[in-house]
Each structure stands twice: as C-alpha cells, then as structure tokens.
Amino acid sequence: MDTRHSVTRCLRECGLDLRSAVRSRRRGRLDAARLRMTASAYDPDSSELITPYVQEVRLIAERATIELRGRLIEDRHTLVAAIHSGAVPVVVQYEERRSDSPALLDRWGRSVAEWRTAAALCRTRAESIAGGANLRLAHYWDAVWQRQSAVDEDPRTRPQDWLPGRITLDADWNEPDSWLTAAPGAPSVLTTALRVLDGGRARAGRPAA
Questions:
Q1: Is residue 116 within 8 Å of residue 177, measured between CB atoms?
Q2: Which residues contact 102 (CB under 8 A, 6 or more apart)?
Q3: What is the pLDDT of residues 64-87, one digit of tens each?
C-alpha cells in the first residue's frame, strides 16, 4: 500500500504530480490580472490570496488525505478489531486487578505497534500529497508573480517562503491512536489500555511505540 509506486500513482490520480506544473502556471498567468494589487503587496496569509484555484488545490489535497486515512482503517479493520478486543483484558488486569502481566501487555503491544507503523507509513503518503499540492501552488504563484512583474517592468522572484494557501496536515495526523476511537479524546477502555501500554514501556526503559 505504501510503496513509492503507490505514492506516485496517488499523486497522479489527484492531479498533483509534476505534469500538473504546466496547468498550474497557465492558471497563474490568467489569475495574475484579476488580483486587484500586485501579489508582492499581500501578506501570504491574506484572504485576498485564497483564490478559487488555491481553494481547488487545497480541497483536492484534503479529500485525498481523508481518503487515505479511511482506506487505512478499512484495510486494517481486522487489526483494529483485535486492538479493541485486546484492550479489555489489559484494563482488567492492570486497572481492576492492579496486577502487572508483561506477557499480556507485550502481546497486545505488538498489535498496537503494527497499527502505529501502518499509520506512520500512511502519514508519509499524506505528506507526499501535501507536498505535491504545495508544488502546484508554488508553480501557480510563480506564474502570478512573474506576470505581474512583467507588467510592472520590475522583474522580481517569488521568495521561497511566500506561498499563500500553503497546505499542512491537520493535527490528527500526529495522533493516529485517536483514529481507533469513535470519539477521539473521550475516556474509553482503549485509551486507558494505551495509557497502560505506554506507561509500562516507559517504566521498562523502552521508548513508547
């Protein structure tokens, strides 16, 4: 699922691959005349610069990353079910009986580690999608900047850090364990078991998965 080939194919299917540069630049040249001021006069966070094209690219990236996350959960439904069912005996043993069971915790921890590894690989793909979308925006704004500079007879180059509409992954990508729960952040058997797991590994001197 998470090979270089699949990342490349995903970018191509979303229209975020390198071949989209020509289309992005063409749209940038068209939009350059529609901006009421020169692009360089705007703060990159200005709402004036969230043009329909920028919105389009951002929506494409958002939809693609949401689909990635959904596909991960669907493809790993057996693993997710095993993690949920395995959380119950962990909570019973550690929270109710107040008795350590390293073997039990280790067996369940391997399933959690497998999930976290899969989620990390999925995040890599999502970062590639965000990067491809930002590349499209960079080509677009390069064209806007160059066309307006030509009109002003004042050649300028777009600063690399000037990228209105820049796309970043939302905070949920930093907490893939929350995807396992119906209500992220709400108290549950699973969140309790995960706390026991990470706390137990930390006490054992091993980094949490």
A1: yes
A2: 200
A3: 999 999 999 999 999 999 999 999
